[in-house]
Write a structure and sequence with these properties.
323 residues, alpha/beta, D-Maltodextrin-Binding Protein, domain 2, 3 domains, five-stranded mixed β-sheet, 10 strands, 44% helix, globular
Length: 323
């Protein structure tokens, strides 16, 4: 065999050897990726039992976080009071809450910042003897004075030309306890979020008002920047995975695809029937509007829940993909 032919044979043999090894190299790399998590820290997302929590809860229930190589879990709390305690003692490092509650907790937890807006809304439910918002004058309404439920109620009363002082307020921390108090007759009305709005309706209550379902209503995803700085890629994956679940709700069957989450949150059969009829078109996680941020913080300041300078930039976190 000539010298030139030998060279060609060696080159061809080497090429075939490399080509033959590619599937095994690919398999090895895939196995390595599958067996290693993106984040260095265990991430726990603290939530309430409401719509804002559903994208994260669905991702956990469907094992989507693990499938995307992120070591993330969720922990549901009954009230913002309990959630805030979980934030304080380090039980959670991401959380879903509302802007007013965030304003109330951030001074004691300055490393926590807002990633973006989540789906969610409040509603005013009342027993059937109440005909309208105006007929609540002198009646007892349950809220949580330290979150956005009071802000929502105050705004709704103003729209109906009523003073906040014209109603009696009862502090009840959790949505589920407010629904129970309404059912027992302890109170006349309550501000709650879904699925508790639907639970109350399932118990025979009337929905007097509900925020626009598909609007930005102040529900947010927040995170501890001490964790996000070390887990940048994981933070982006958590957001994109939650966005996938929001997209599934929009395209498939609304709350129908969130059946496991609704069961986790204790929705009753009649409530489930009502909520799965709702037409939803939720937005993916996106930046909080500066006007919404300022409005919530000014309100929190007026209620003495927040005392520092109001700074949108200082309290928001830039995450790739959140626009």
């Amino acid at each position: 065999m000539s010298r030139s032919l030998k060279k060609i044979a060696i080159v061809v043999a080497a090429f075939l050897l490399v080509l033959g090894s590619l599937p095994f190299l690919g398999l090895t790399n895939a196995k390595a990726a599958d067996s290693s998590m993106v984040n260095k820290d265990k991430i726990t997302i603290g939530t309430l039992k409401n719509t804002a929590a559903i994208p994260a809860t669905m991702a956990k229930d469907n094992s989507e976080f693990n499938r995307n190589n992120v070591d993330a879990d969720t922990k549901a709390y009954d009230s913002n009071t309990e959630l805030n305690e979980g934030i304080k003692n380090g039980e959670v490092n991401f959380a879903t809450t509302d802007l007013v509650n965030y304003a109330a907790l951030v001074k004691a937890n300055p490393s926590w910042k807002i990633i973006g807006t989540l789906p969610g809304y409040y509603g005013l439910v009342a027993n059937k003897s109440i005909k309208s918002v105006k007929s609540l004058k002198g009646k007892t309404i349950a809220i949580d004075k330290k979150d956005s439920t009071k802000q929502y109620l105050n705004s709704l009363l103003k729209k109906n030309k009523m003073k906040f002082s014209s109603v009696k307020i009862k502090q009840i921390d959790s949505d589920s306890a407010r629904v129970d108090a309404l059912k027992s007759g302890e109170i006349n009305a309550a501000v709650v979020s879904d699925p508790s709005i639907s639970n109350a309706k399932g118990n025979g209550a009337k929905i007097l008002n509900r925020q626009k379902i598909n609007a930005d209503n102040g529900q947010v995803l927040i995170a501890n920047t001490k964790v996000t700085k070390k887990n940048t890629a994981a933070t982006q994956i958590i957001v994109s995975t939650m966005n996938t679940e929001i997209k599934n709700m929009d395209k498939m069957a609304g709350y129908g695809v969130a059946g496991a989450a609704l069961r986790d949150f204790g929705i009753n059969d009649k409530g489930a029937k009502d909520i799965t009829k709702l037409d939803v078109n939720f937005k993916k996680i996106h930046k909080v509007k500066k006007s919404d941020f300022n409005k919530a913080f000014k309100y929190a300041k007026s209620q003495k829940l927040y005392k520092s300078k109001i700074s949108y930039k200082a309290n928001t976190l830039k995450v790739k993909g959140v626009k």
